[in-house]
């Protein structure tokens, strides 16, 4: 595996974290955005996910610091279309005029055809779960700017990477994996912070967990997705929420999540919890 440039032991919103020579993580409030591409080749990079609403200026500023003022990305790749992963995508597309790619099952939510189910405020969890009633669930309309990912698993403008269908959190959720150094961009297939609890979100206490409970609608499929990612044996994982995790710590924690998903991830109660399947 490529050496990490710095150990990631803390995180501050708006501060870019270089993880490998060509993976940079930008935390924006409570969600992570990834810049994939070496700064030595500033014309060849891709943005993965698009952060919270009103975060376009932070993303544009970081892109300029990393790759220069006039080097826009080749594309934007979306792990899924929830509000905290597409918050700035419309502004970024208008500014950069670049294509957006997502799984075909996410397309209805990105072309104005469908809205996501409302957040489940009844789900087991802390203050963030209760606050989720305020989170937007409306789809967005990217029109002709959005395209479905290739059926062969390749990722446009990301040589060496492949997309992995990891549904459960949403039907068309994907993760991105690079075999050469076993780097994983997991989206919300699993996360490294208990996203339902306000204190843990504020302190970014690192703890592997399943997808955020209040927006996950299919727990059986979500577990299958974790099994699929554990089988890849990643060496570095950048998740949608929480600090990146790597090495033995990642291996042990992801294996534990796989084994004990029903205890760690699936809530005891909630709108989308089927007690018979736990």
Rg measurement, Å: 17 Å
CATH architecture: 4-Layer Sandwich
The H/E string reads EEEEHEHHEHHEEEEHHEEHH
Largest sheet: 7 strands, mixed
Assembly state here?
A: single chain
Number of domains: 1
**What integer is the average pLDDT?**
88
Organism: Thalassobacillus cyri
InterPro entries: Metallo-B-lactamas, NDM-1-like, RibonucZ/Hydroxyglut_hydro
Protein name: Glyoxylase, beta-lactamase superfamily II
Features:
278 residues; alpha/beta; Metallo-beta-lactamase, Chain A; 7-stranded mixed β-sheet; 5-stranded mixed β-sheet; 17% strand; Glyoxylase, beta-lactamase superfamily II; NDM-1-like; RibonucZ/Hydroxyglut_hydro; Metallo-B-lactamas
Protein described:
The protein is globular. 25% of the residues lie in helices and 17% in strands. The protein has a seven-stranded mixed beta sheet with strand order 1-2-3-4-5-6-7, with helices on one face. With 278 residues, the chain is of the alpha/beta class. It has one domain: Metallo-beta-lactamase, Chain A. Helix 7 packs antiparallel against helix 8 (247-259). The protein is built from nine helices and twelve strands. The termini are far apart. It has helices spanning 56-67, 83-86, 89-96, 107-110, 127-131, 198-203, 219-232, 247-259, 261-264; strands at residues 17-20, 23-28, 31-36, 46-48, 76-77, 100-102, 146-148, 161-165, 174-178, 183-187, 236-239, 245-246. It comes from Thalassobacillus cyri.
